[in-house]
Amino acid sequence: MHSPFVYNLVTQCFNDKTIYPEYATLKKHRRALRHDSSMVEMKDYGQGSRVFKGNARKVSAVVKNAGMKKKRQKLLFRLARYFKSENVLELGTSLGLATIALSLSNEFAAINTVDGCPNTLQKAQDYFETFNLHNIQIHQEIFRDFLAANTSEKYDLIFIDGDHNGDRTLEYFNSLLKNTHNNSVIIFDDIYWSKDMTEAWQQIIANKNVTVSIDTFQWGLVFFRKEQTKEHFIIRV
Questions:
Q1: Are 83 and 157 in contact (CB under 8 A)?
Q2: What pTM does this model have?
Q3: SS (H, E, C) 58-111
Q4: Residue pair 97/73 in contact by the 8 Å Cβ criterion
Q5: Number of neighbouring beta carbons within 10 Å of residue 51
Q6: At what angle do helices 118-130 and 97-105 cross, to 10 degrees?
Q7: Distance (Å, rounded) from C-alpha 83 to C-alpha 96?
Q8: Number of helices and strands (H, E) in the chain?
């Protein structure tokens, strides 16, 4: 690996085996969700679910079948911690598995999380309060409207996991370019969800503003470091 930046990221973050105390909170939150038998009427503004047929879904079933896996949740925590991300944007709150990981990575960070479904957001907010997480600001908006109204904010880390449509994902990326700085990272979930998502990912990594891109087979990460030579890496995590 010829990039010291990527080498350090892999060895010090991707492969970090430290058992952080915050992992215990992630585990408690996940366990609480897995035992939550309440029903939530979910309004999906993205591509919909491949598992559920209706909008009324049991919380425990959503976590089991469609929630972020433990390994990825811990990796997201480590990424935000490694980059010391202070201003964070998440597109796609769902039940808050990723949101809590981002929140715990830095108690002084500002986590802005966006979702269009008021019922899902309320459920997530209830758990944020249960676990005394006070650095999370929720926004009940569709992504396009939020991005149109927030054009000047600069984010250190952006996590996109709420719309598996290739054209819209590309639209969000192009809109978010003005919200990035030299050390920002954008993380895209499910880059191989569909043909159009993969095509969008290919266009994103070819963008002239992207210098370093990493394909982890589920997530795609892009960086904008002007001091870096443009390189693309495939790293199994």
A1: yes
A2: 0.94
A3: EHHHHHHHHCCCHHHHHHHHHHHHHCCCCEEEEECCCCCHHHHHHHHHCCCCEE
A4: yes
A5: 11
A6: 40
A7: 21
A8: 9, 10
Q: Strand order of the sheet with strand 136-140?
A: 136-140, 110-115, 87-91, 157-160, 185-188, 220-223, 212-215, 231-234
Tokens standing for 186?
Answer: 């954008």
AA letter at 142: I
Cα gap 185→183, rounded to integer Å = 7
The 8-class DSSP code of residue 180 comes to -
CA trace torsion 113, 117, 122, 123 (10° rounding): -90
**Amino acid identity for residue 144 in this structure:** R
Instruction: pLDDT tens for the chain, 237 residues: list them.
Output: 578 999 999 999 999 999 999 999 999 999 999 999 999 988 776 544 444 455 788 999 989 988 899 999 999 999 999 999 999 999 999 999 999 999 999 999 999 999 999 999 999 999 999 999 999 999 999 999 999 999 999 999 999 998 889 999 999 999 999 999 999 999 999 999 999 999 999 999 999 999 999 999 999 999 999 999 999 999 998
Assess contact for 65 and 227: CB atoms under 8 A: no
